[in-house]
Amino acid sequence: MNDFRPETRPETRAVHLPQPIIEGSRPITVPIYQTSGFVFDDPAVMADAMGRPDGAYVYGRYTNPTVRSLEQAVSGLEGGVAGIATGSGMGAINTVLLGLLKPGDHLVAQSSLYGGTAAMLNELVGRFGITVTYVPGDDPGALRAAVRPETRLVYLETISNPMTLVADLPGMCAAAAELGILSVVDNTFATPMLCRPIEHGADIVVHSTTKYLSGHTDVVGGLAVFADNATYERVWHFAIELGASADPFAAWLTLRGLQTLALRMERHCSNARLLATRLAEHPAVDAVHWPGLASHPSYELAGKLLSGFGGVFAFDLAGGRAAGERFMSSVRLALLAPSLGGVETLVLHPATTSHRSLSPEELRRSGIGEGTVRIAVGIEHPEDLWSDLAQALA
């Protein structure tokens, strides 16, 4: 223990608690550093810490030992040089977009995107005068044609939410690099177990750590990983002022979940294969959107790019919205709830939930219909899941 200051009064001693100093060993798991700030003996060291991301720990809004462990863990999995953990997935996305764009800039985005991201892009247009052009995520030619002198970023999703279209990361990122613009890839659906976008030329990878990385539906968090230090430091300086910081306890829970990510992804993917294959043959289903099916437009690309096809997919019910509402009211094992990536299976209706902010035209552009249901497949026994879906369809 450090100096307990026994000469002080009880009121003071209750504030200045003894701190353990561990020598000769180390903890097996990363401890939770649940503190808002850190104490310095040298003012110069404190001043230095507030000016650079690799300095001493100074304040929770900058980073924290538990949070930094998570940043290093995920950036290591993704093949990046550094990461910035945030309080949510949208926090990570907004940190990157707002940290790199200014009024008058132009962004090229994949036409099929998560509804929250699409809504934020609309905010950028309305509030900041940033223009957006949408192109297919697998068409580098369309990207080249869309680029302007003021284009700064291209934004992609490895596997799109919810229609599971796979982006041509090698082609799109190479085109972006040739044109001198940065590529940002949301890798939440794939995780670094199925794909590592930086290996395919991406400059920045973002995650909602709420999903598969934490994996147990008890965390809200996000993370951005950077391929080079210059871009990382540029965004870091903005991030500490934005204040979308990660909480140490949430970071600790995510680290705990990260240790079983590979095992869980294997089960998510195998369960999804069984359900997608059987749903594709069901008379109540018009179409199934999972890149592991040969009928999916991204099937060949997914086979080249991904080591697994993911645990989330969408399917269109033949009866439209009414059929979708009946189905979601009838499931018993699957849960009607937002989010994804936990151990339990969740279903929702994208047009009225995750993508509710999109206009009818934007929904059509994304491929989302009134009868589209998204299922985030958990790790339950697959036959139990199929029995539940079959009775709900009946």
Automatic annotation (TrEMBL):
Keyword NAD attached: no
Record EC number: 4.4.1.2
Cofactor(s) recorded in Swiss-Prot or TrEMBL: pyridoxal 5'-phosphate
Cellular compartments per GO CC: cytoplasm
Superkingdom as given in the UniProt entry: Bacteria
Residues found modified as N6-(pyridoxal phosphate)lysine: K211
Enzyme class: lyase
Catalytic activity: L-methionine + H2O = methanethiol + 2-oxobutanoate + NH4(+); L-homocysteine + H2O = 2-oxobutanoate + hydrogen sulfide + NH4(+) + H(+)
Record GO terms (molecular function): cystathionine gamma-lyase activity; homocysteine desulfhydrase activity; methionine gamma-lyase activity; pyridoxal phosphate binding
Pfam families in the record: Cys_Met_Meta_PP
InterPro entries per the UniProt record, alphabetical: Cys/Met-Metab_PyrdxlP-dep_enz, PyrdxlP-dep_Trfase, PyrdxlP-dep_Trfase_major, PyrdxlP-dep_Trfase_small
Keyword line: Lyase, Pyridoxal phosphate
Biological processes per GO annotation: cysteine biosynthetic process via cystathionine; transsulfuration
Family: Belongs to the trans-sulfuration enzymes family.
Protein name per Swiss-Prot or TrEMBL: homocysteine desulfhydrase
Organism listed in the record: Nonomuraea solani
